[in-house]
Amino acid sequence: MNTDPFYIVMQYAAARRRAAIRDRDRLERWQESRILRHLERVREASPFYRELWQGIETAEWRRFPEIDKRAMMDNFDTLNTAGIRREDAMNLALQAERTRDFTPEIGGLTIGMSSGTSGSRGLFLVSRRERLAWTGTILERVLPGSLLHRHNIAFFLRADSNLYGSVRSKRVVFEFYDLLHPLERHVAALNAQRPTVLAAPPSMLRLLAGERRAGRLNIEPGHLVAMAEVLDPLDRRVIEETFGRKIHQVYQCTEGFLGASCRHRTLHLNEDVVHIEKDYVDAERGVFVPIVTDFVRFAQPIIRYRLGDLLTERRTPCPCGSPFTAIERIEGRSDDLFVLPSITGQGFVTLFPDFVSRTIIAASEQVQAYRAVLNSPRSLTVELDVSERGDRVDTERRVRESLAELCDRIDARAPEIAFEPYTFVPGVTKLRRVQRRFAVNERMEPV
């Protein structure tokens, strides 16, 4: 007898009960007790963490050393609690990438590979029990209305996984769309499916919006979900205007299911499954780098894991009343902070990706899409998609002047700008509207 659907429903109900918590102190007490129990299990089962935490009591877990993707991958064999070798997991993941068959497991675990946005590929392991718990939680956070209603979901990702396949049931029709397939194939399949929920990276939602405006895509989804990429204000506006629906967000990455929008479209961190410490980069604006402790995942424990994302916390309470931390926006990646020479000639000035995005968007209403890539502190490439009725030369001039004004405001020397046509196509890589292509040291100096 297959008990998976029953377990998913139980996890869905548990997620609803946790989401109903309205007291922050109660949430933190509950969190702490769960974390302590989880860490004791991890300490016993993971040789890597046991050695890393030597001499530190579990009750003082906030003193545990942080780890990052490199540490996790370098110590994969002893970090995971299932005895899975990195080489074996990587071989299976690469085979799945080549064949596009993502059903094989290793040691009863789902194996996946991150897209490598940060420059290196990451592996993740998820047990069957964790997979079903994830399914129940994401259904509770993402589906409009009750699980008892019927939902027809179209889900776009770079790679399918048993993790996502768990969602399929009698009431939930779930179709995976491979981002590597041609757009024409997607349009035909969507027209046949007629999804009520459309979930995809913003770059794909933009393409589908274009197909809908051209009259080739004939669907009326009642719920739009953006995921896997930063939702840019320009993309949000075009997608919402085209489909006549407000966009909700899912904040999901290799390191866990970190956040989802509430009914007011505010992104909340999922603090019933993860604990987030905030390392502030700009305390005045509330911009921080999250340090994640997942107290649900055990096969591949994520404990005090430093992400590369920049989040801006919301300063005012969300009307939904949830005590889960509200996020104003995901700024981008910390390694995409622009580092520009100071106008004084001494030192460097940092510029957040969000300021670059908003400056380019505001420069001209003819900008349909863009990418800004800082190749060096003195060299910037800007890809622009200009509307058919727009003047490319004038649009480029406006963007150049606006970026120069922005640099003046922060006392930075403006880089030389080279304009190119916009070329990004959704597929293998995630869209990064603002990107830095050189490394910096701790003093924010180029290396």
TrEMBL record:
<protein>
    <submittedName>
        <fullName>F390 synthetase-related protein</fullName>
    </submittedName>
</protein>
